[in-house]
Write a sequence for this structure.
């Protein structure tokens, strides 16, 4: 399928368009001094391609968050979340194909580089099943891929430069199409700029930048002077997704506006000199209290942010789908719990994070409401870790053990029920490795400390014979596992 995104007009008034499918395969570099119209160009591209492809915008100034109101992007405040939370959001973005704007406004240079690197590396490292096509737009790319070391630490610079290099050099095979914009080519790392096959060159004045722009477009050095004469919003385009020969284009209008704008002239206040001096230097009268600023909108919590990402992708697919019958719903819950426990990487994560994944898995099977809050999920998770995915009915033989487990700390219930189930079925005592996995840890030392705690509480009694065989008894129930 060929999708042409209208970018404006060429020299003869004809429409100038970007072949979106070709752009996804060949990447784009935009260059122009401050005020040349780079952000306007990116906004035109984002608005035109929004219905067709997922978009991820790395926005150092917070200008592109206005896309959320018109095109449904999720705004992510990079400064409000930890690195672990940003990785979590990026994982969900690739999984659910939701367009986002990562706003880095308010962070210092090192914070912006670290947040962007964490985000981009997580997008790049997504599982193969999530390699969907996405347009990754990085504004002010020279901040994240500097040509020379600056005031930030070498570690952060290497991390950010590596993420940008991965995006531009290796991202295509993973569905990531880099679109980078920079004020000066001389400030942008050459190995990042060299991977783009499409170019939009705007107004620039320094000789070194004009020479590099001319080299990238295949122009002679004497033709580089034209970049000084370009008006705002005018660019020279070249590349397989744009034009086979250098083509001057004028970028068309956009539907949304940036939060910041270029300064405009306005008349100065007319006041006599004496009045102006009084305004500045008269302190006799107490200053009038300033009205309190309106309260800022509360930032979304991590759970709300992840929920919004899931809902944007899940809601359209769920429309008109009937809810499963109760028996089917119980089977879906059991299946999703079994998948969580079987997943080697998932089973060691905190219950709150597992609850998010559990909800996604249920919705993917058509169950919008599994009927569990976080507390109920923790209980079911304890049962699932003991192999009881269907839960426990009142008449089940292990129901008595479940009542005893409710008296123990939450993280110990799964281990207790695993031992109780082995004793009920006259099975050998589970190994330390198996119980550690139920406990949610790789450390058998932590598991042994838990067993010592349970024994101190009188919940279990461990018996070891002369041959090293171990059996565990549950005094309150009168059950004992077979020797292992």
């Amino acid at each position: 399928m060929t999708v042409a995104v209208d970018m404006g007009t060429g020299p003869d008034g004809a429409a100038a368009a970007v072949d979106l499918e070709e752009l996804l395969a060949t990447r784009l570099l935009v260059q122009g001094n401050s005020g040349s119209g780079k952000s306007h160009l990116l906004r035109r591209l984002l608005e035109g391609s929004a219905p067709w492809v997922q978009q991820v915008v790395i926005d150092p100034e917070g200008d592109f968050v206005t896309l959320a109101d018109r095109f449904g992007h999720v705004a992510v405040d990079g400064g409000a979340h930890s690195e672990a939370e940003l990785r979590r959001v990026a994982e969900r973005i690739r999984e659910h194909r939701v367009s986002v704007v990562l706003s880095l406004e308010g962070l210092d240079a090192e914070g912006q580089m670290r947040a962007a690197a964490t985000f981009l590396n997580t997008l790049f490292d997504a599982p193969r099943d999530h390699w969907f096509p996405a347009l990754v737009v990085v504004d002010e790319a020279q901040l994240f891929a500097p040509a020379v070391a600056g005031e930030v630490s070498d570690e952060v610079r290497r991390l950010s430069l590596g993420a940008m290099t991965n995006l531009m050099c290796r991202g295509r095979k993973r569905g990531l199409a880099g679109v980078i914009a920079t004020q000066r080519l001389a400030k942008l790392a050459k190995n990042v700029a060299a991977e783009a096959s499409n170019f939009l060159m705007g107004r620039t004045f320094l000789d070194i930048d004009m020479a590099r722009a001319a080299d990238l477009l295949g122009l002679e050095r004497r033709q580089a002077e034209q970049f000084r004469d370009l008006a705002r919003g005018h660019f020279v385009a070249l590349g397989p997704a744009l034009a086979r020969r250098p083509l001057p284009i004028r970028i068309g209008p956009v539907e949304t506006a940036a939060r910041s704008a270029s300064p405009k002239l306005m008349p100065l206040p007319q006041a006599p000199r004496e009045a102006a001096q009084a305004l500045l230097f008269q302190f006799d009268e107490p200053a009038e209290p300033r009205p309190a600023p309106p309260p800022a909108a509360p930032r979304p919590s991590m759970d709300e942010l992840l929920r919004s990402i899931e809902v944007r992708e899940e809601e359209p697919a769920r429309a008109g789908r009937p809810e499963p019958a109760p028996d089917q719903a119980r089977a879906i819950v059991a299946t999703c719990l079994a998948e969580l426990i079987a997943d080697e990487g998932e089973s060691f994560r905190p219950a709150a994070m597992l609850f998010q994944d559990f909800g996604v898995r249920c919705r993917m099977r058509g169950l919008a409401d599994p009927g569990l809050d976080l507390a109920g999920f923790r209980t079911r998770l304890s049962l699932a870790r003991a192999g009881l995915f269907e839960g426990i009915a009142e008449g089940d033989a292990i129901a008595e053990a479940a009542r005893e487990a409710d008296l123990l700390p939450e993280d110990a219930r799964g281990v207790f029920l695993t031992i109780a189930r082995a004793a009920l079925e006259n099975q050998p005592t589970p190994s330390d490795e198996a119980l550690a996995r139920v406990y949610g840890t790789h450390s058998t030392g932590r598991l042994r400390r838990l067993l010592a705690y349970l024994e101190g509480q009188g919940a279990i009694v461990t018996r070891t014979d002369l041959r090293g065989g171990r059996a565990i008894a549950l005094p309150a129930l009168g059950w004992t596992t077979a020797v292992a």
